[in-house]
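Format is chain and fold; as here:
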Amino acid sequence: MSNEPIRFDTKIAVLLREDLEPWQRLNVTAFLVSGLGTQVPEVIGDPYEDADDVPYLPMFRQPVLVFEATKETLTAAHARVISRSLPRALFTSDLFTTGNDRDNRAAVRAVGTGELDLVGLAVYGPRNGVDKVIKGARMHP
């Protein structure tokens, strides 16, 4: 087994609006990344097992990089991710007021693409493509 670091030619990035409360940042990040594994199965690694043979669920095979940006940068990133047709998930401010999956989907469905009040976006794809989508964002502190 090689000790060389593993380099991925893909990237998982979460972009959060900079004015979110800490609990909102965590909640939005968790919701956003949950969608990627359902549509992009290659992002999921093998299951885990400890030394006592207790099994654990598989997780992402690579790091999730979290960024923050202004509302304007987030809106621009949303337009770029759509134009590049990269796998994506979104979280709008309306989802903070709903309490279940059905109402979440209805809240997004009720608003046109250009009018969405985005607070978070997740994207997966080639490193350079993801970098172009999140241009202007900065790493989350």
The mean pLDDT is 94. The first strand starts at residue 10 and ends at 17. The two ends are 34 Å apart (CA to CA).
